[in-house]
Design goal:
This protein is an alpha/beta fold and 287 residues long. Helix content is 37%, strand content 17%. Keywords: Hydrolase.
Length: 287
């Protein structure tokens, strides 16, 4: 029997000094889902009911996003704090381990968490975010530097906020819609959900602070070893921000790795091609 949206529960938890909002459904082993920019828990709407048939699925609003707390200090968004949020969530939810799923910034956090706390993971699933070592290598190439122009733009104080909030935050849905290959993946209500989340007080600056700390993150000066956590990397091939070449040779850094490419699909892979993403996840999890 399929699990329906009506049984989703909205909950809050205080961990690592912040109150985090999350949506949960199902019982069993914890499957924790981390979204990216400029989204929120809602980006997992196609995965929550699917996997709640087998797991306790928890899709969290990352700190600074939507209905979670939004600390004002830029230093509150360094990777070490984001990793502590994940560890706290797992423990406070009553689990010792989880299956961790991350997309975009959620993927960056998930990679870093896997290295920091490998014993807290059963499996790792990453969507359209390369291994940190591969991303750093990519920034030394002209093509990826051009794709990553927005990271450098977001370093400017105040101006990105002014542009993103102009015309009633229309840049948020526009960014998602224009970079998606499957334009029909997002209804007007879907896009308004992301716009409304970004428009909440202090959210926009909090969201941008992830980028404003990026060059101080430990993965820029870390020697990455070989990860022993079984890992699935799912990649929409037409990502305008992150080139497919960033996935090549990821097996250098991950002992047990599966890579699944999805053609005719952009960055928003779990929303553009949800059935295929769910199928690859089920096969990887053997359910």
């Amino acid at each position: 029997m399929s699990v329906t949206q009506e049984t989703w529960k909205h909950e809050y938890m205080i961990t690592n000094g912040v109150k985090l909002h999350y949506v949960t459904q199902g019982t069993g082993t914890l499957m924790l889902m981390l979204h990216g920019f400029p989204e929120c828990w809602y980006s997992w709407r196609h995965q929550i009911p699917e996997f709640a048939q087998h797991y306790q699925v928890v899709a969290v609003d990352l700190r600074g996003y939507n209905d979670s707390d939004k600390p004002q200090e830029q230093s509150a968004y360094v990777m070490d704090e984001l990793i502590k949020d994940v560890a706290g969530l797992i423990k406070e939810l009553g689990h010792e381990k989880c299956i961790l799923v991350g997309h975009d910034w959620g993927g960056a956090i998930a990679w870093s968490f896997a290295y920091a706390y490998p014993d807290m993971l059963e499996k790792l699933i990453i969507l359209n975010l390369p291994h940190p070592a591969k991303f750093i290598q990519g920034l030394y190439t002209p093509q990826q530097l051009l794709r990553s122009w927005y990271i450098f733009f977001f370093q400017i104080p105040a101006l990105p906020e002014l542009l993103l909030q102009s015309t009633d935050y229309q840049a948020i849905p526009n960014t998602i819609q224009t970079t998606a290959v499957n334009k029909n993946a997002f209804t007007p209500d879907d896009l308004n959900t992301y716009r409304n989340a970004a428009a909440k007080p202090d959210a926009l600056t909090a969201m941008l602070n992830y980028y404003r700390n990026i060059f101080s993150h430990s993965f820029f000066n870390k020697s990455w070893g070989v990860l022993n956590v079984p890992t699935l990397l799912i990649w929409g091939e037409n990502d305008t921000a992150l080139g497919k070449e960033l996935t090549y040779d990821t097996s250098t850094y991950v002992k047990d790795l599966q890579v699944k490419y999805i053609p005719a699909c952009g960055h928003w892979v779990q929303q553009e091609k949800p059935e295929l993403v769910n199928q690859y996840m089920r096969n990887f999890l053997m359910i």
